[in-house]
Amino acid sequence: MDGSSNVTTLHFHGIREKTRPWSDGVPFVSQCPITPEGQNHPKNHNPFPFPYGFNTDVDGAPAGTYWYHSHVGAQRTNGAYGALIIKEKGTYAIVEKNIIDDAANTLVLQEWYESSTNQVPVSLLINGNGRIGELINTGDDEQITAHLKGKGACFNLTENKHFHPDNFTTNYTEFHVKPGFQYRFRVIGAISQNLPLRLSIENHTFTAIAMDSRNIQPVTNLTDLWLAAGERYDILVKTTEEQDQSGLAHKIKVIGYTDQPHNKCPLCTIAWLKYPKQYIDHTYDTHSACTGFHLPPPLRTLNPVPNKYAAWKNRIKYPNWKNPSTTGDIFIADLREPKSKSKSTITNLANTQYIEFDGNITFNGLRMSYPQVPFLLQDPANEIDRCGSECKGQPPQTKCTTKNPPNCSANDYCKCQHVVKEPLAKDWWVEIVLVNNKEGAAAHPIHQHGGWYWVVGEGQYDTNTKKFQNGINSTYIKHLDQCCTAKKNCLPRNFDNPPAKDTIQVPPGGYAIIRTHLDNAGTWIFHCHINYHVTIGMAMVLQIGEPQDWCTKPLERNVQCETPQPQPGGGPTTIHWYYGMENAERCVTPGMTVTFNWVNKEHNVNSMTEPHYDSCYVKGHNNAADAGNHNWIAPMVPGTYYFACGRFPNKSTGIGYHCSHGGMKAKIHVRSVCP
């Protein structure tokens, strides 16, 4: 369904998978990718069907707002995702204290692309619904590259040939409410690239009560909420007491900027918030460039994109935001969890790791590569190509050593199997200081699998001053953090009910300090949730414990995956070529190899013209059965190339049966830049 490969996995985003790390759904980390042949493939080592799931105890999956998605290539971008709402028992759509909590009141937000190989965002979706106006975004390779790297880009507005104001094929999502209640809405940022989205509701304020599935101390009287890729918020919307409210329904407005660092070049959409006597204008559309999409100035904004030092400096700090009349921006580090009666062990620190992001989209100058035997299934671990940090011994006697990448001569970044290895220690925590070294870069949304981390610190610097004109780095932050009497933890930290997150935007020219409980054994990927960034390697594995500490249950240990390693950014790719497949579409750069892979001698591959591809007309092409594999090397001339299986052509029409009925055809784009 996308440009990666005909394999998939399923990840429950936000679920700890405690005692079930094999069910985390990350290819080459916790499992081998699932092939389309399933149990019929002679070399398939996965159980069929794959038994994904989770424990619903408090530690594993407490009630809250989660979501699920594929963790392969661009499948999430292309629709392989959905909301996952876990309710307390017996609370489906209940009314309690005038609060209506119905899981149907969920907004899943995403930007939309016309195809998996053209990464120009053209619209915003709420629950899969949106519209495109009379103009549509188009872009060249330079603009697309800037967008994918997170630097922001303004695209070209050109005529939308499919636009007709009286013939929309979709309507905006509708939510129906009654006067005099509070409605719980759950908002999920299923965003793919660096396009954070701002939500507001006409003539209504709201209260934030939870984020990333965890309750927070309520933040009232909000006018705006921002979400980046992977984040979730639960809000309460109080409806008016006015019983005769009529006229046009209220708009839930969502806006984002393709040039995010400069808040330029917007995309926008709406959903309707409708009272019983109101009506909906089904002819309405958010015009191109969001002309007439009136947004009042934000008064109280939660979780703004942290890419403006002035906003950070002038933010509403805790506890000042408790005053609902105080206006300004509220950042994550100033939020608090509900007060807990139990004593936390969060101050029991095993060690501190410093992870720096730079312009090359790396962690500490390293890009992730993956083993053919998934990390979780290695017993003992294969250390040959690993790099990162290894911490041995039980706290407080834990000693950490740095492992440099093997055979690395690159000037910009190195590729290796980046692992931070920590002991399993139930009463101890690892601290990670995330350093985003340059203003103008993306506010990378960093997501951790295997559970939450607690945000104990955050800071940002004015990189427009001479002192920081070259940005900041982990060496500088580490110096600040060790330059005090205690010689550690010198940067400000908060241990008074700090908020828990599993995804946080790290401010450019700044840092975030997070702490993770070392109680969940397994190998957990830790990555930027901008899809392009994780696919090209902005990731590492947080390993907690040793192989004997975790269960792999239905999966065999020490068995290599038959699926080839992913090759992002237009590298060599594979198409699983079999009867019953979906039509394949790939993007590669000139000179790269595309491998059509099949097992038995029953298929072939033919290059053909676009009209013959569209109609599956294979007469005159090879119709004999060949043995796989078939390799095609992309030419140096950019363009789109077409292929089909030529088996069993109809004698009268020339239409190939495997192509027309078995889906066996492929469209390959050769471009200088691929997503």
Mind explaining what this structure looks like?
By secondary structure, the protein is mainly beta. Helices cover 6% and strands 35% of the residues. The protein has six helices and 42 strands. Strands 4, 5, 6, 7, 11, 13, 14 and 16 form an eight-stranded mixed beta sheet that branches. Strands 24, 25, 26, 27, 29, 32, 34 and 35 form an eight-stranded mixed beta sheet that branches. The longest helix is centred in the N-terminal third of the chain and has 9 residues, at 141-149. It is globular. The two termini are 15 Å apart. 49% of the residues are buried.
Number of H/I helices: 6
Radius of gyration: 26 Å
Beta-strand percentage range: 25-35%
Q: Give the N-terminus to C-terminus distance in angstroms.
A: 15 Å
Biggest sheet layout:
8 strands, mixed
What's the number of extended β-strand segments? 42
* Basic shape: globular
* Helical amount: under 10%
Mean residue pLDDT: 91
Structural class: mainly beta
Parts with pLDDT < 50 across at least 5 consecutive residues: none
SSE order and pairing:
Blueprint: E1 11-13, E2 64-69, E3 81-86, E4 94-96, E5 99-101, E6 106-115, E7 118-126, E8 135-138, H1 141-149, E9 156-159, E10 174-176, E11 182-189, E12 197-201, E13 206-211, E14 214-222, E15 224-227, E16 232-238, E17 246-248, E18 250-259, E19 264-274, E20 277-279, E21 300-302, H2 309-313, E22 328-330, E23 349-357, E24 366-368, E25 386-392, E26 399-403, E27 414-422, E28 429-436, E29 445-448, E30 453-460, H3 474-482, E31 500-501, E32 503-505, E33 510-517, E34 522-528, H4 531-535, E35 539-544, E36 573-576, E37 584-588, E38 593-597, E39 606-608, H5 610-615, E40 630-633, E41 639-644, H6 657-662, E42 665-670
Parallel strand pairs: 5-11, 6-11, 10-19, 15-21, 17-20, 21-22, 23-28, 24-27, 25-27, 27-35, 36-38, 37-42
Antiparallel strand pairs: 1-2, 2-3, 4-5, 6-7, 8-9, 11-16, 12-15, 12-18, 13-14, 13-16, 18-19, 25-26, 28-33, 29-32, 29-34, 30-31, 30-33, 34-35, 38-40, 39-41, 41-42
